């Protein structure tokens, strides 16, 4: 991979990981509801899970979709269904610091698994693999995965901290409910490009 491709890839990885999408909205929601430390497993699931997905996509998963286009449709329906389910869970949750609170951030494994039904994640992985590794080399694929793993740490931290800062505004159950409903709605809106 040429140096200019690496520079462009780094820029693409940082921009694509920092822009709003399902992962970042859920990290911000978790940061607002339970704080930074309890959201770390979720962030690490994204940080590790997405690069694994990139590697597997680069190793030929795309070709399976070309051979069996119905799998793509099934994945799309599963993705939308799971995102609606997560939005529902966010909308009806309350933070633990309130009496009766029930918000649970995604675990490491759930966050890593979520990458497979994340529409923005698929778009980022397919773009990175096809545009920034045209030779389809293992080195290029590994480099993409490493760059994304590195980019996800400051991005995830930023969104969690942004959510945590919102705790100062979320001082009563009405504000918390409005925030969670808003985040659930934004999560649903983030799926519109898939439809």
Can you write the helix and strand succession as a string? HHHHHHHH
Characterize the biggest β-sheet.
none
Percentage of residues in DSSP E strands: under 5%
DSSP summary: helix tally: 8
Which structural category do the helix and sheet elements fall into?
Answer: mainly alpha
Please tell me how large the radius of gyration is.
17 Å
Query: How many strands appear in the DSSP assignment?
Result: 0
Q: Give the proportion of residues in helices.
A: over 70%
Which oligomeric state applies? single chain
Span of the ends, CA to CA: 35 Å
Overall geometry comes to globular
What is the mean predicted local confidence, pLDDT? 86
Low-pLDDT runs of 5+ residues are none
Structure write-up:
The protein is mostly helical and 195 residues long. It contains 8 helices and no strands. It has helices spanning 3-18, 22-34, 40-67, 69-92, 108-114, 119-132, 138-166, 173-189. The model has no long low-confidence stretch (mean pLDDT 86).
Structure at a glance:
Helices cover 76% and strands 0% of the residues.
Write the layout of secondary structure elements.
Blueprint (H helix, E strand, L loop, with lengths): L2 H16 L3 H13 L5 H28 L1 H24 L15 H7 L4 H14 L5 H29 L6 H17 L6
Task: Please supply descriptive tags for the structure shown above.
8 helices, 0% strand, 195 residues, 76% helix, mainly alpha
